[in-house]
Design goal:
The chain has 504 residues and is an alpha/beta fold. The chain folds into 2 domains: 317 residues, Alpha/Beta hydrolase fold, catalytic domain (Rossmann fold, 3-Layer(aba) Sandwich); 124 residues, no CATH class. The protein contains 15 helices and 14 strands. The strands form 3 sheets. Strands 1, 2, 3, 4, 7, 8, 9, 10, 13 and 14 form a 10-stranded mixed sheet that branches. A hairpin with a 5-residue loop joins β2 and β3. α3 crosses α4, α4 crosses α13 and α5 packs antiparallel against α8. 47% of the residues are buried.
Length: 504
């Protein structure tokens, strides 16, 4: 009896081992649950969504595609979700939008379920979490005018390194990131037969570095010429600032945030935001920057007058501004603005309010806006991919993944984008910023555009839009509609009329 039982146990173990045997890529067969990444795993589904009153049928594919090394070996697999409108027969004229988020180290979830996709997470009209968690149709989705693929770089989402012998430096750095993603895009476009399609890159936050660099890498290494690049809440794109310019350029954002929280004197508070900010912008460039450049040589009376102006514009008292030598740090501003109420304001979106253990201190204890977003996005993306689309895996979906150390050297992405635009007459740029974004503030986004093109040769192909929200301006219901409409117009205007040659 014991011998028979032992035989049964051996048989059961063998069957289990066979069931768990990986494929040639080191992953389980499609449709099974496992913590290993599967290169042949795929989930497909059809659906429809009403956008701007129009029925839009589509096919969605959640799958992975390899990253190849120089010898043609799969060293990583990138997870993606691809939406194709199904009632469009001619893919040659159908735009393709390739979407990345930032971090570095964050997944594509933010713009996928927050901005352009046919589904969006359930939140209130200002972007705050509500329960029960979930998602719903997005009536503002960009899918009516373009197909969209959301891409998760290595160690974000479900994307992983396959070959453990491959060093992280192959992926985790400004240059490495651009190089392997350009090759991946080239493969994707070939597999999906989209070489003829007008192509657009959209990136958010660090993703703006990514897509700016990709514009030149795709053009000069893969001979893939784009129609448009969209930067959502851009970084500095490697364009240098010194201490003086950095201190001056942040003032308009602080002024916007103070206006939102009603911390200004009636003279300023009574103005519409969009009419108030140009005054502050002019002050920052024409008055504050020269004054800061003088440092200790600035006469006492002029220093006093400057302190008074800064304090009035950003809602802080003059003593605080003077103690900071007119260079109010971001961290301190987020702590100080509502200190008298025992509250802090958010970094990425300063509409959000937090509370610290102590009112005293130089910076907030936590980022109230980021925690709010993780609160709502994490359940929604897991429910959508696993339950709605049926993508089977036990992998942890990395909202934020391990990508450190990240090599930030040789960040010339702003200049790369400038060169790509000068080489390609078809290529246009759209920048979208939230006025209340303190991480990638709107005035620095404008400054990028000026410094990318100091001679003003391509300003007619650069466009900027601002919104009364923060880093993810699309979380506010009103801005979700407006910002997607701006994308539609940009895409339409960036596709040349039939037969128009690419020449200056």
């Amino acid at each position: 009896m014991q011998k028979q039982l032992f035989t049964y146990l051996l048989l059961a173990i063998s069957v289990f081992a066979i069931a768990q045997k990986p494929t040639e890529e080191g992953s389980p067969k499609s449709g099974s649950y496992n913590r290993a990444l599967s290169l042949d795993q795929k989930a497909e589904k059809t659906g429809e969504v009403t956008i701007k009153g129009q029925r839009v049928p589509y096919k969605v594919t959640a799958s992975t595609q390899p990253v190849w090394d120089e010898e043609g070996k799969a060293v990583a697999g990138l997870f993606y979700v691809y939406y194709e409108r199904t009632d469009v027969s001619n893919k040659e004229t159908r735009p393709l939008v390739i979407s990345f988020n930032g971090g570095p180290g964050t997944a594509s979830v933010w713009m996928h379920l927050g901005y352009t996709g046919p589904k969006k997470l359930k939140i209130d009209d200002e972007g705050y979490p509500i329960q029960p968690y979930g998602f719903e149709d997005n009536p503002q989705s960009l899918l009516d005018v373009a197909d969209i693929v959301y891409v998760d770089p290595v160690n974000t989402g479900f994307s992983r390194i396959l070959d453990k012998a491959t060093p992280g430096s192959k992926f985790f750095g400004v240059t490495a990131d651009i190089k392997y993603l350009a090759d991946w895009i080239n493969t994707f476009v070939g597999r999906q037969k989209r070489w003829a399609s007008p192509k657009f890159l959209i990136g958010e936050s660090y993703g703006t570095n990514r897509v700016s660099g990709l514009s030149l890498e795709l053009q000069n290494r893969h001979w893939m010429f784009l129609n448009g690049v969209i930067l959502v809440s851009p970084t500095d794109l490697g364009l240098k600032r010194d201490a003086v310019s950095s201190a001056a350029l942040r003032i308009p954002y602080m002024a916007a945030t103070a206006w939102h929280h009603k911390k200004l004197a009636p003279t300023f508070q009574s103005k519409e935001l969009e009419k108030y900010l140009p005054e502050v912008e002019a002050f920052a460039i024409n008055e504050l920057m020269p004054a800061l450049a003088q440092g200790g040589a600035l006469p006492a009376d002029k220093r006093k007058a400057m302190v008074k102006k800064i304090a009035g514009y950003i809602g802080l008292n003059e003593t605080v501004v003077a103690e900071q030598n007119m260079e109010v740090p971001f961290d301190y501003f987020w702590k100080e603005l509502l200190r008298d109420q025992g509250k802090t304001v958010g970094r990425l979106d300063s509409r959000y309010i937090g509370m610290d253990k102590k009112n005293a201190g130089q910076k907030p204890d936590y980022n109230s806006e980021l925690l709010s977003w993780e609160h709502s996005f994490t359940p929604a993306i897991n429910m959508y991919l696993r339950d709605e689309l049926g993508y089977k895996t036990d992998l942890n979906y990395y909202i934020f993944g391990p990508v450190q150390p990240w090599d930030n050297s040789n960040n010339n992405t702003g200049d790369d984008l400038r060169l790509a635009m000068m080489e390609n007459p078809y290529l246009n740029l759209l920048v979208q910023s939230g006025y209340y974004d303190g991480a990638c503030d709107y005035f620095n986004a404008k400054y990028n555009m000026w410094q990318m093109d100091p001679a003003g040769k391509i300003q007619d192909r650069m466009f900027w839009e601002g919104y009364r929200s923060g880093h993810m301006m699309y979380l506010r219901k009103e801005d979700l509609s407006t910002s997607n409409d701006h994308l539609r117009v940009f895409i339409k205007n960036s596709i040349p009329k039939l037969g128009t040659p690419a020449k200056f």
